[in-house]
Amino acid sequence: MAQRKPSRAIKLFGTEALEGKRRELTAGPISAVFDNGALRYIRYYGEEILRGISYIARDKDWGTYAPAIEDLKIRQNKDGFAIAYQAICKDQDQAIRYSAKIDTNSNGTLTFSAEGTPLSDFLTNRTGFVVLHPLAGTVGRPVEVIHTNGKKERRKFPKLISPGQPIFEIRSLKHEPLSGVAVTVLMEGNKFEMEDHRNWMDASYKTYVCSLLDPWPYTLEKGKSFSQSITLTISGKPPKSRPRTSAADTTITLAGTKGRIPQIGLGVPMGEAAAALEAVDLIAAAKPQSLVCQIDGRELGQEEAAACYRDLSRQTGAPVTLEIILPAREPADKEVPAIARAVNAAGLTPESVVVTQMHDLKSFQPNTTRPWGPTYEEMATAARASFPDATLGGGMLSYFTELNRKPVPQGVFDFITHTGCPIVHAPDDISVMETLETLPWIFASARAIIGKVPYHIGPTSIPCRDNPYGAAVAPNPDNGRICLSDIDPRQRGLFAAAWSLGYLSAAARAGVDAVALGSATGAQGMIYRKLAHAQPWFDGGNARLLPIYHVIAGLAGASGARRIDTDSSAPLKLAALAHRNKAGQVLWLANLSSETQRVKIKGFDGPARVDVLAPGSFEAAARNPAWLESGGTFVRRVGSFELPSYGVARIKSG
User: Fold this and answer.
1) At a CB cut-off of 8 Å and minimum separation 6, what does 303 contact?
2) The listed CATH number (2.60.40.1180, 3.90.1640.10, 3.10.150.10, 1.10.760.10) that belongs to domain 250-254+563-653
3) Looking at the chain, which terminus has fewer C-beta neighbours within 10 angstroms, N or C?
4) CATH class, range 255-562
5) Where do runs of H (alpha helix) occur along 52-134?
6) 363-421: per-residue pLDDT in tens?
7) d(CA 78, CA 327)
8) 22-236: CATH architecture
9) Is the entire prediction scored with pTM above 0.85?
C-alpha cells in the first residue's frame, strides 16, 4: 500500500531504519562517544585526539558485519566509565562471538580489550581492533613508533596520501596532537600496521590488526579463542590560550571571485541507458554539461546502448563522454576497434573517450603482480586511432586508491579521471559525511600525480559504483546502511542532496575541472523509477524525482561560472558554494549535520530569493522538476536564517 505522507526518516534518509542511539561518556578531561560497540571522538579537554577505536569483523569481500550487542553494561561515575558487552557477528555461513571491556579513568588511561571465539570456521579479511587517528593535528606531523621487535623509530604521518602502508609491524604509536599533550596507543595481541585511510575517503589514518602482506582471506578456527587489547595513555595539558570553537551561529562569508564552477555532468550506466532515454525530458531540464556513458566490452548489447546514448545526447544537447572497458583478453589494438565498430554503427560520436581495462576495476596492493592487461600507453594509442576526433581520458573508473596505486604516466592522456565512494569502510551517517573532510587531500594528492592536465571526477554517489575490493557489491535487500553496496536508501533522501553539494563545493575549491554525479536513473540516480528493491514512499507516492535532482538542475547550468570564494566558520557542519551570474550572486548551502543550524551570511549584496530544500518542501520537490523556480521566499537583505537537518538552500540575487 502506498504511503500517503513520507515520514521524516524517509525525507532525510530514504528509509524508516534509524541508526542506534549514541551515548557520550566522560572520565575527567577525557570524553568519548559509545556507538554500537565502538568508541568515537575520543577527546581530551574537548579536543579530539583519536577518531575512534573499534573491534570489527569483515568477510572475504571486505564487507563489515554489524555486531549484535548483548548483555550491555555501562557504568559512569565521577572518576570514569566502564563498559562491558557481548557481541555476535554472523551471516548464513559463519559466526563469531566476542566479549569486550572498556575501562577509563580520569588519570588519562583508557583500555579496550576483547576476546573473540569463532562459533564456526570464520573466513575473514580482518577481525580485531582498528584505531583511527583524525586528520586535524595529525597530517604531516611526527609520530614515534615502537615496532613489534622493540625497535623505536621516528616517522611522520603522510601529508600527501600514501598508496601503501606507511608503517608496518606496530606495537605502539605516540604523537602530540596538541602542544604539550602526548598520546600513546599501545596495541597488543597481534601485530598491527597502518594505512592511509584517506585513499578511500575516510577522514583518518587507520591502524589495524594483522598485515595485508600476509595471505588473506584467512580462517579463524571454530572454538579457538584469541585476545587483543588497545591501551590509550594521555599525558600533559593543552595550553590555556588554544582557540575555542564558538557555539554561536555558523557564519558564511563571501569574498572575491576565485576560479570556476566545475563542468557538472551526469552518469548513465550501460544498464540504465534505456531507462534514461525514457526520462530524457527530465534529464534535459537538469541541463547536465556532459553524459558520462559506458560501454563494457564484456557485455552484450553494446550497439543498443550506444544508440540510446546517441538519442540522449541529441535530445538533451549534452555531449557524451564514453567510458570503454576492455575485456583484456587480446591486445588493445584489437579490442578497442571492436567496441568502436558498435559505437559507429549506432551513430554515436562521443566528444570524449575514457579507456580502461577490466583488471583495473579491481584493487591491488602496491608492488604486487597484476594480471596481464594492456598498458596505459597501449590503450591510449588504440583509442586515438579508433576515436581520432575525441578528447582522450585515462585513469580509473574506480576510486582514488586505484589511481594512487597505478599512477598514469604524464603526457599520455588529455585528462585524468577517477570516481569516489563514501561507503567503503563505514556506512553510518556521521562517517559518510566525514568523507567530505578528506576530499582536499584526495584532490591535492591526485594533482601531484597527474600534473597540470585537466582533472575529472567520474560518476559518484553515495551507493558504490562497483566493489574493487571483493568479488561483488554487497547485497542490500532491506534498505540498510551497508558498506560497498550499489544500493543505499540515503540516495533518495535530503542526506544525498546535502552530501553531493558538499562534494561539489570541495571539488570547486580544489580546481577540479569536471564532476559527474551518480546516474540519471537507477539506484544511484536523481530520477525515480520502479526498481527491483523497495523504495518506501516513492513506490506509489507519485514521485518523479529525488532531492539531489534539484542540486544538479540548479548548478549544472552554472558550470564554468566564476566561483565566489566562501569561508565557513564550521566547514565540517556547513558546506557552501557560490558563483556569479548576470543577475548577481548565487549562494548554495548544505547542512551536513542532523541538527538544525543557525546560519549567518556576510557579503551577500542586496535582496535575494531563498529556496530551501528541506523536509517541508520534500514532497513538492519530489514531484515538480521546476520546483526551484516555482516559489521561494523574497528577502530584502540576506542575514541570518535556520537551515534544517541535511537541508540545502539556494540564495539568489534578485
Assistant:
1) 342, 343, 345, 346
2) 2.60.40.1180
3) N
4) alpha beta
5) none
6) 998 888 999 999 999 999 999 999 999 999 999 999 999 999 999 999 999 999 999 99
7) 63
8) Distorted Sandwich (2.70)
9) yes
